[in-house]
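Async update (no meeting this week)

Hi team, since we skipped the sync, here's where things stand on the single-chain job. The sequence we agreed to prioritize is pasted below, unchanged from the tracker. I ran it this morning and attached the output directly underneath so nobody has to dig for it. Comments welcome in thread, and please keep replies under the output.
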Amino acid sequence: MDSKIKCAVFDLDGTLINTLTDLINSCEYVMKKHNFSRSWSEDNYKKFVGNGNRKLVERAFDHTLSEEELDICFNEFMEHYNKHFLDNTLPYDGIREQLDILKSKGIKIAVVTNKVEAAAVYILEYFFGKGMFDVIIGQRDGLPAKPEPDGVFLALEEMGCSAEEAIYFGDSNVDMRTAKNAKIEAVAVTWGFRSFEELFAENPEIIIDDPKYIEKLF
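Output:
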């Protein structure tokens, strides 16, 4: 165990839980409602996520919407997603066990996500219980989204942890850039929404392909 590492910061979607199918279903509901005929593959959607749900909707409509139209479609997306976001969503295999191991080692655990904070808290407590995470930082008014490092800084402050004492886990280029902007060690995970090649291009300190390796970094 690296005794200087006291905190773990995790992305949410694509890192702890697989939310992709429910996000796709809500996108396609809105696209069908507005007679948008373009169809996308799952790999396309994996590239669309990572910058929040508004950006996801904008990309799903291939950047064809005005700001007013985007407002309407985003609100319809969120209304549908809020009713269906647990239909297919599940934690990745092995994640719960790894979080339990980190807790047993005295590691503090935070989540920093571009998902709306209320939804993030609900999902995390639904799957992992109320005591698992020391801090949950999601989309808040006035808080810049990732890859800006503000959410990570806030999480570290609330945990009483310096950047040098923490590791950041994420599955996307947005996450790798967030970690670098926060000057925190970046661990890329390949079981999420981005390819090994895309993650490798961001020069993370470590790349892991199975949750079982998480505990070995502490």
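Quick observations from my side:
The longest strand covers residues 108-116.
DSSP finds nine helices and eight strands in the chain.
Reply here if anything looks off.
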